[in-house]
Amino acid sequence: MKNALVILFVMLFVAGCGDKKENLKVVQFKVWGNCDMCKKTIETAINTAPTIYSANWNTESKIIKVEFDSVKTNLTEIQNKIASVGYDTEKTKGDDTAYAQLHACCQYERRAE
Q: How far apart (Å, rounded) are the C-alpha atoms in residues 32 and 109?
């Protein structure tokens, strides 16, 4: 009986240790910005959602890599969240009011529409 409990405990422990990322999808796309303050704002805009597993924006390449649950969210929703805090992406224009409130060092040269 004691051995059965030990085996059961070990099996439950191993099963619970796995990093379960259900319906994982990984995308990369461009997000305009300038600095580490931009990085924090961009990543925080989407990392707070439980459907996002990770987001990492590179300040030099301007490319963000996002891992997310493809059943519970999609690329358009992710880009819209980033746009809502004032940053342009490849497919969405950042909110003008939010952009105007960004710190001066975060106000990048915006694309012509």
A: 8
What are the start-end ranges of the H helices in the chain? Answer: 2-17, 36-47, 75-84, 96-100
> What is d(CA 14, CA 68) in angstroms, rounded to the nearest whole number?
24
pLDDT in tens, 63-92: 999 999 999 999 999 999 999 999 999 999
pLDDT of residue 20: 67
* Residue range of the domain that includes 36: 22-106
User: Which amino acid appears at position 14 of this protein?
Assistant: V
Q: How confident is the model at residue 7 (pLDDT cuts 50, 70, 90)?
A: low
**CA–CA dist 58, 5 (Å, integer):** 48
Per DSSP, 86 falls in state T
The pair of three-digit structure tokens given for residue 79, joined into one six-digit string: 């880009």
Which pTM does this prediction carry?
0.80
**Residue 7 domain flag:** no
